Amino acid sequence: MTPQDTSPLARGRVATRLPAQDLERARRFYSDKLGLEPVDERPGGLLYRCASGEFQLFRSAGASPGTFTQMSWQVDDIETVVSELRQRGVVFKEFELAAVYGGGRTRDGIAEVRGHYRGTGARGDRGAWFRDSEGNMLSIGQPVY
Fold first, then answer.
1. What is the pLDDT of residues 60-83, one digit of tens each?
2. pTM confidence score
């Protein structure tokens, strides 16, 4: 038996929480740019659900540093998703990848990332990164088999 088998958290659902200094501005970004609408809301928070998870935007006085990926969506066709989001006004980052990820640069906003978790059966990822209206770094990934 592994610790994973006995952990009460292993049986829980993971849900991401992202800070928003301006919740209404964030709501507009997620609606207009990403095509997502909250499924529920409370004072100071918006709840979103996607195919296999959920995330919340919460009003926060703190700002996200936006220096690392805070949330990601896994998709089947990254080129189509990037193209559709660009048409909605999403700006994808262009940058050099660290050597640990295989080096190289993004091309047209999409990076080829070497390596993957063995249990997935993939040999790598294709990824694209952008910031939301609040500075949170978000990504889109597509496993490469």
1. 998 888 889 999 999 999 999 999
2. 0.88
Backbone angles phi, psi at 86, to 5 degrees: -60, -40
Q: Which residue has the tokens 């996607």?
A: 50
Consecutive H or E run containing 40: strand 40-42
pLDDT by residue (tens digit) across 3-17?
666 788 888 888 999
Quote the tokens at residue 104. Answer: 């190289």
* Domains of the chain, start order: 3-144 (3.10.180.10)
Q: Tokens representing 74?
A: 């896994």
Can you say whether residue 29 is alpha, beta or left, with left for phi > 0 and alpha for psi between -120 and 50 degrees? alpha
Rg value, the chain, Cα: 16
